[in-house]
Amino acid sequence: xxxxxxxxSKDKLFSVYSNDIINQLEQLTQINTNLCxxxxxxxxxxxxFNDTEYIFSSWGMPSFTLEEITVLFPSLKxxxxxxGSVQHFARPFLExxxxxxxxxxxxxxxxxxxxxxxxxxxxxxxFLNCLYQSNNEISKAIEIRQNIKGTYGCYxxxxxxxxxxxxxxxxxxxxxxxxxxxxxxxxxxxxxIELKVEKKSLHNLFASCMVxxxxxxxxxxxxxxxxxxxxxxxxxxxxxxxxxxxxxxVENDLVKALKEDVTRCAxxxxxxxxxxxxxxxxxxxPNIFLTSHIAGSLGDELFRMSEYMLDDFKKxxxxxxxxxxxxxxxxxxxx
Length: 335
What we know:
This protein is an alpha/beta fold. It has helices spanning 10-16, 19-28, 39-44, 66-72, 90-95, 104-123, 126-134, 138-146, 163-175, 189-195, 202-208, 228-231, 251-260, 302-317, and strands spanning 2-6, 36-37, 52-57, 78-81, 99-102, 155-159, 179-183, 198-199, 211-214, 239-242, 265-268, 288-290, 325-326.
């Protein structure tokens, strides 16, 4: 039962797998806990990896073609990916019947925690109020304060009800009296009822909600989907939050809408590219607040992802039903 660590970024991988997880893997399977192979290593000595049954990876997982997988990993059964999106590598493995396990649900937790905190702050007018008060623009800070509606009974818009969006919804519903609207073409009526949300069109969402948070799946269909036709509908004192993907936002359109109404606000944890170009107008507007992709797992939060993968591995070797398996069908709607 041979296993390997595989990533083109060794440092990132060993920041995700804690010493405790590594020690448990050493006891459960034949794995060299001091080595992390990259794609170049595999290609240099392909026969050495022919008996590999399990791959443990994280960010930096290399992609392989169908032909490469067939030649290099004829014994491979499972890949345990201690990170989020598998879009860049999973398809050819899945097409060959190799199981993919992803910690996307683990990575969803800190993103959801970050998002909920930003939603609550946005509903208090925190961002612009803090900016003006800190710069001694007291009259502007007072104006923001006077127009605060707060979280109680407010409408919140969630774009994408996948792992992250659903977690945000559940966190909000469990602690706050809010009404939630969702735009997600993949959200069934039954699931909407279960989540206690209203399904709405994208434009209806922007026109109706004081806070709109993006968690859409990242694919060609969603690239540039958030444009001026959406942002121009934002209410006064409303906030757009993006922890999804920067490519889904037409940057110039967002800038235009926020220039038109300076009471609107945007909290952007992701941009396209990251960081924005030096010439980007995102740096120039007082009502745009940028963070450096901090919503996802950081620090000790990373260990949660390898714990999820260890749990699935234990279920595999015990022939039990796994929890974090990804299918080909799921790729169409996953981030």
